Amino acid sequence: MRHICVEGPIGVGKTALAERLAQRLDAKLVKEAVEENPFLDKFYGDMRNYALQTQLFFLLARHKQQRELLQPDMFHETVVCDYLLDKDRIFAHLNLTEHELALYDNIYKFVAEEIPKPNIVVYLQARVDVLLARIRQRAREFEAAIDPGYLAELADAYNHYFVHYEAAPVLIVNTERLDFVANREDFEDLFRAIEETTAGRRFYSPRGKGR
Length: 211
Known about the structure:
The protein is of the alpha/beta class.
């Protein structure tokens, strides 16, 4: 089974790309249930008091989804996920206190042991002002209170994490001049770059300027 994960900070376009890839590959699409988290809107309004509940709900919901991938699927040979379970720890380290993080780490070590690893991670990047514009455009009510300073911290944490990620090949994609939803040429060019990423870490900019 080919297992592709699309990752990146809030608003970068993970789900949109995952949907296009799943359609192109006739793959099973796995999307994280962001809007099902009952603590998320409270978290953006009061991060300190709702960080642990929000984080644990996401961890356990993602673990349940990922465990289901261990079961054979007679209709699909390929899986495309719009998240990587490992990235859960980015948010944990950013938002939890020392004691909360110790509790979280104990739970994470237990649930992460049996989770399948991807064959490739497609990591999407964009400047914070671009992320904020995309968040405003999609107009999710619970994201209205996102602090630009928090988003900048999150984007930096993502960059640091995936520049050092070694569990699978990584394609790092600059999305600021990409429109892989409306522009077929953009999508096909990116798709070729994904197919060509079989080891290590590659960097991709639009129109075949990867290296």
